[in-house]
Design a protein that fits this description.
heterodimer; A: 428 residues; alpha/beta; Peroxisomal Thiolase, Chain A, domain 1; ten-stranded mixed beta sheet; 35% helix; B: 83 residues; mainly alpha; Non-ribosomal Peptide Synthetase Peptidyl Carrier Protein, Chain A; globular
Chain lengths: 428, 83
C-alpha cells in the first residue's frame, strides 16, 4: 500500500426506488409519517404462498419512460435492474455530475451496484425457450438482464463510467457492503466518485425460497401494513420487499472542487463474517462476529462507542431481533437509557433483501442531514429481551427531531456475513 | 407480397432498433444496418427474430450473415416467402 494520505469520503448524491416511495423526497415523507409500502399481492395468493404480503415499488409508465428508451424497454423483464437503473441515474443526476463525452469514459468514476441475483423472471423466460429447443429465440437481451453485474454494466454505459465497474453479492448485506467497498476505493485514491448501492427483484421467483423456509409471516394477508413488526414481541417473520438504493460517494476534495451538495460523510466501515462458527450458520449470525464488525467499524472511523447517536439496525422482524439488539448493547457497552436511539425502516418497506442496506442507507443519510429520527411502526409491545436491556424510549414510535452527529448502520446476510458503517453529519 | 410491402414492414422493424441519435428518415433501401444506421451488432439477432415473426419464415445462419443492408433483408424475405 502506498503512503499517500487517505482521502475523506462524502456522500453527494442519492437515489431510491422503494416500496413506499419512488424518489428521495417521497421516501423522506413516507418514513417520517410511517407510510407503509407493504401490500397484499394477488399473484402470491394465486400461487399459494403462505405470505401474500410484499413490498413492491409502484412505478408509473411515465417514470419508466423517463429513464428507459422504447428500445431499452423491448423484451425488458428484470424488475431489480429497472429499480437500479432509475435509482442509479437519479443519484448521479442528484450529485450534479455530467455524463461522459461520446469518446471519453470518466476514468475516476466507478460503479458498485450489487444484487443477489438478476432478472429472475427474464431467466424463467429463457429457461422455457431453451427447454423447448428454441434457444435462438432468446434474442440479445437475455444475458444482459440475467448476469449479476447487469445493473452496473447498464449504468456504466448510460453514464460513461471508466473506473471499476462491478457488482458485489453478499445476500442481505449487499447494499451496505457496496457502500463500504466504494468508500475504501475512494479513500485509497483509486477513484474520485463511486456510484454504490444495490437492487433486488420483486416477484414470486425471488421471494418463493424464503416462503418455503417458513420465515415469512402468514397471519397478515388481510392486514398487510401490520405484517412487518421489528422490535415487537409479536414479530412473526420478515415481509419480503424489493427496490433499489443508490448513493454517489466522492472524495471530499472533489466534492469541494465541484461545489457539490454534501449530504453526509462516511466516517468508516467494516466487513466480516462469522464463518458459520459459534452460533452462526448459513442463515443465522454468529453473535461474536456481529459484535466484532461493529467494533471494527468504530475503530475504522476512529469514533468512540459513546459518540454514536443513532443506530439503524438490520432488524428484520424475526426471532433474531432481540439477539441483534443484545449484540449492539455488548459491542457498544451501552444499555438502558444510555443506549443510542435505534430504528428499523423494515416496518414500512419490508426486507428488501440484497437492496435492503442500500435503501435503508438513503433513509440514514436523510436522518443525518435533516436532523430527524424516523419512527418505528407496528411495535405492540417491545420484545421482552429487548426491553430487558434497552430503555423503551430509545426506540421511538413517533418521528423525532434531533441533531445527529454519528449514525451507525449494519446489515447482515445469509452466509453469516456482516457489514457495518459509521456515517457522520457533514459540517464544512 | 410486393417489394414495397416487404420494404415498409422492414423499415418499421429496423426503426425500433435505431440509436437515439439516428432519425427514422435515415433508413433507405441501401442502408447498411450497422455502418449507416449505427445499429448495435447485438440487436441484429433481435431484428432477425422480428423478421421471422413478421413474415412467418425461419432465417438460418447463412441468411443472418447475408443480411447486411435493408435490401439484403428484402431479397431474403422475397425468396423465403415465394419459395
Amino acid at each position: 500500500m502506498s503512503n499517500r494520505k487517505l482521502e475523506r469520503v462524502v456522500i453527494t448524491g442519492l437515489g431510491v426506488v422503494a416500496p413506499n416511495a419512488v424518489n428521495v423526497e417521497e421516501f423522506h415523507n413516507a418514513l417520517q409519517t410511517g407510510t407503509s409500502g407493504l401490500r397484499h399481492v394477488k399473484e402470491l395468493e394465486r400461487l399459494n404462498f403462505g405470505c401474500q404480503v410484499a413490498g413492491t415499488p409502484q412505478l408509473s409508465q411515465e417514470l419508466i419512460n423517463s429513464h428507459l428508451t422504447p428500445l431499452q424497454q423491448r423484451g425488458f423483464n428484470a424488475s431489480g435492474m429497472l429499480y437500479g437503473i432509475i435509482a442509479g441515474k437519479e443519484a448521479y443526476a442528484d450529485a450534479g455530475l455530467t455524463l461522459a463525452a461520446q469518446d471519453d469514459a470518466l476514468m475516476d468514476f466507478g460503479i458498485i451496484m450489487g444484487t443477489g441475483q438478476s432478472g429472475g423472471a427474464k431467466y424463467r423466460e429463457a429457461i422455457h425457450l431453451i427447454d423447448e429447443g428454441k434457444v435462438r429465440r432468446l434474442g440479445s437481451t437475455s444475458v444482459i438482464q440475467t448476469m449479476s453485474s447487469g445493473i452496473s454494466a447498464w449504468l456504466a454505459g448510460e453514464l460513461g463510467a471508466g473506473n471499476l465497474v462491478t457488482s458485489n453479492s453478499s445476500a442481505c448485506s449487499t447494499g451496505t457492503e457496496a457502500l463500504i467497498m466504494g468508500y475504501e476505493r475512494i479513500r485509497q485514491g483509486k477513484a474520485k466518485q463511486m456510484l454504490v448501492g444495490a437492487t433486488s427483484d420483486s416477484g414470486p421467483y425471488i421471494w418463493g425460497g424464503f416462503d418455503a423456509m417458513r420465515i415469512l409471516p402468514t397471519g397478515y394477508n388481510d392486514d398487510p401494513t401490520a405484517a412487518s413488526r421489528p422490535f415487537s414481541s409479536d414479530a412473526a417473520g420478515f415481509v419480503p420487499g424489493s427496490g433499489a438504493g443508490a448513493l454517489v460517494l466522492e472524495s471530499l476534495s472533489s466534492a469541494i472542487d465541484r461545489r457539490a451538495t454534501i449530504y453526509a460523510e462516511v466516517s468508516g466501515g467494516a466487513l466480516n463474517a462469522g464463518g458459520h462458527r459459534g452460533d452462526g450458520s448459513m442463515t443465522a449470525p454468529n453473535g461474536a462476529a456481529v459484535q466484532r464488525v461493529i467494533r471494527m467499524a468504530l475503530n475504522d472511523a476512529n469514533v468512540a462507542a459513546n459518540q454514536i447517536d443513532v443506530i439503524n439496525g438490520h432488524m428484520t422482524a424475526t426471532g433474531k431481533d432481540a439477539y441483534e439488539v443484545n449484540n449492539w448493547v455488548k459491542a457498544l457497552e451501552r444499555s438502558g437509557s444510555t443506549f443510542p436511539w435505534m430504528n428499523s425502516f423494515k416496518s414500512s418497506i419490508g426486507h428488501c433483501l440484497a437492496a435492503a442496506g442500500a435503501i435503508e442507507l438513503i433513509g440514514c443519510v436523510l436522518q443525518l442531514q435533516r436532523g430527524t429520527i424516523y419512527q418505528n411502526n407496528n411495535i405492540n409491545s417491545l420484545h421482552k429481551d429487548i426491553a430487558a436491556v434497552v430503555d423503551p424510549g430509545r426506540i421511538p414510535t413517533t418521528t423525532i427531531d434531533l441533531d445527529i452527529q454519528y449514525l451507525m448502520k449494519a446489515s447482515f446476510g445469509f452466509g453469516d456475513v456482516n457489514a457495518c458503517v459509521v456515517l457522520k453529519k457533514y459540517e464544512s | 407480397m410486393t417489394t414495397t410491402e416487404i420494404q415498409d414492414q422492414l423499415f418499421a422493424i429496423v426503426k425500433i432498433y435505431l440509436p437515439q441519435d439516428v432519425d427514422a428518415s435515415a433508413i433507405n433501401k441501401d442502408s447498411h444496418l450497422m455502418n449507416d444506421l449505427n445499429i448495435n451488432s447485438a440487436h441484429l439477432v433481435d431484428i432477425a427474430l422480428d423478421v421471422e415473426d413478421a413474415f412467418d419464415i425461419t432465417l438460418d445462419e447463412k441468411d443472418m450473415e447475408a443480411m447486411q443492408t435493408v435490401d439484403d433483408a428484402i431479397q431474403i424475405v422475397k425468396t423465403k416467402t415465394t419459395g
